[in-house]
Amino acid sequence: xxxxxxIEVLNVPTPSFLVDIDKLERNxxxxxxxxxxxxxxxxxHTKTHKTIEAADILCGGQKRCxxxxxxxxADLYSDNGFDDILFAFVITENKIVRCRQLHNKIGAFHxxxxxxxxxxxxxxxxxxxxxxxxxxxxxxxxYHRTGVSWQSDDIVNLAxxxxxxxxxxxxxxxxxxxxxxxxxGSEAIKEAGRESTEILMKVKQRLLQHSINCGVVCMGSTxxxxxxxxxxxxxxxxxxxxxxxxxxxxKNIGSCSMDDxxxxxxxxxxxxxxxxxxxxxxxxxxxxxxxxxxxxxxxxPWIIQDNPNLRLVGMSQELGKVTTVEGxxxxxxxxxxxxLFIYPYHSCATAAMHPVYYVHSGDKIMAMWRPIRGx
Amino acid sequence: xxxxxxIEVLNVPTPSFLVDIDKLERNxxxxxxxxxxxxxxxxxHTKTHKTIEAADILCGGQKRCxxxxxxxxADLYSDNGFDDILFAFVITENKIVRCRQLHNKIGAFHxxxxxxxxxxxxxxxxxxxxxxxxxxxxxxxxYHRTGVSWQSDDIVNLAxxxxxxxxxxxxxxxxxxxxxxxxxGSEAIKEAGRESTEILMKVKQRLLQHSINCGVVCMGSTxxxxxxxxxxxxxxxxxxxxxxxxxxxxKNIGSCSMDDxxxxxxxxxxxxxxxxxxxxxxxxxxxxxxxxxxxxxxxxPWIIQDNPNLRLVGMSQELGKVTTVEGxxxxxxxxxxxxLFIYPYHSCATAAMHPVYYVHSGDKIMAMWRPIRGx
Lengths: 375, 375
What we know:
Chain A has helices spanning 21-38, 52-58, 71-79, 96-105, 116-124, 154-163, 186-209, 222-226, 248-253, 285-288, 347-351, and strands at 16-20, 41-42, 64-68, 83-90, 109-113, 133-140, 148-149, 168-175, 216-219, 237-238, 263-273, 278-281, 303-304, 310-315, 320-324, 339-343, 357-361, 364-369. By secondary structure, chain A is of the alpha/beta class. Chain A folds into two domains: 40-243, Alpha-Beta Barrel (TIM Barrel); 262-369, Lyase, Ornithine Decarboxylase, Chain A, domain 1 (Beta Barrel). In chain A, helix 3 (71-79) links the parallel strand 3 (64-68) and strand 4. The two termini of chain A are 23 Å apart.
């Protein structure tokens, strides 16, 4: 693997993942400002970038209060001076040993559950250091993935169990407001955020009626947190992740503009197939991921910068096929060696394919970041 | 990341990529036997597994004669005692510096090209060690990706240029016979292999008519090499890759049986969504990849071992949704914590998502292999 830092964007090996540091910092500041305005604690989710450097920027240099999707991320951050980490993934027994290590290692480590089985796994494995498990309950508002349905009595039952257990503290509610991905435009996103907030407040109220104090209500999802409804000031924490880079999917939803997208894949034309009207690039599915392709064919989900008439229509492991939306490819305009820049459809998926991010300001490469991977 | 080696398959952290070493060794031996029978040199492609250990087995302990898809693979193998490496990816100028390092480092390093631009890039950058570049020309038989069309005069022109250049040796022709992925069953695969061989022999003949000797004709693709037509003994090299693990796609094509598939993803049920008839597993697209999903919906392309009535119908980054083909999920049968094993649709794509492979014989974990990634 190339280890020397190239000087300019045009010198990076291809394929590469490029990170525009100025856009990333702008996205970070905008989210910090939004949270400040609403009086919300920002808990950036690290799943999109998985680097020390980006987490540090998103946390405004505080190195505390993050959410992670894997124990590998939790290990990375706790090894590098970060504290107050939420493992935002429903706990199961097989992950308890490593959670206990993390709990003993840093000041504040939080787990999440959505079932009595998860509760019993924690109950069977006390932290062993006198400091109780800090537990969020995940609520399913309308995304229908993990989480206890907001209408279910199980929420009260679980919260009662946690609150009544000396080895645990009931920290509050967590909701990945993923349903907002189905809305288009800032007004619709706000309305969805308002509805979810209202539901979460009902749940909080229901718990209060059972004398259970819900200290923190945390809501994720980049669309909601990019266009928060004013009512979301009733929440305590935001945990968006994707906004670090944004992407074409978020642009389509209306969370961001094209100009906010901070991540791109650099690739080069390596062959011309004139007979089949195709440019071959050195960006296959190992460089950009096929996530999003299943819902976006025959129209390609990716955007090739400054080339609206080109689209990436197929990929094998290391090769991509680029053709025109209309007419013939102007092969003279795209000789072998031409560099193209592709905006990811889903930056979480694309970034995860790269062992190195090439971080640039304008045309200059400023740094190489190495994300953690695995579990 | 978990670093200690678990003792049994049922103890692996989830998600994990499991490699059945007995099946892998059987697949390796079968391909070696096939090549021996036909009198062909096997040049295993490493793109599927990208490990030292599997390459060593596929080479029958010889540590020589492999094909790679990335320079990162070439670096790994040349650093670990492997020799005679073909970088089976059309060369462009930006990759020349690293190719020259590899050329100077090992006894035999081969490059591949499909254009005059590639030729000129090599011409401009002599190897500098008195040993000429060893060059394959990639031929497009009917896959229509990279490669010079087999009907094009460019083949003769390129071969003449290479043969006439003191700094280069014309090694021969390379063909990824990817078209065979469109055939079903061993007879159709054989017929496709026979046709491609016939075409490649015509090209070889055409070169001979121009007094150009084509030393080696190399053909890839796991289907062709798993069911070779006898006429393929006219070739000099086979360079299949996927057969190391095989997968559901190869099973569907007819290259292998279910029992030959040596790679699986281990995952656990982490939540039950009874209202929506869904089991949630800790296998999202970062653990299995979405490759193949675009052509296989609404039917899921993956197979959940021993559970024909279950199918993986959706994924987010770290979560998978499993539901039934017919009827309701038997939630009592799949409590939280239940381990499931998923056969990959495309093992090249799935394996690439994992920093560690858990290698097992029967139920016992024998080793942890760490593949190279990146470019």
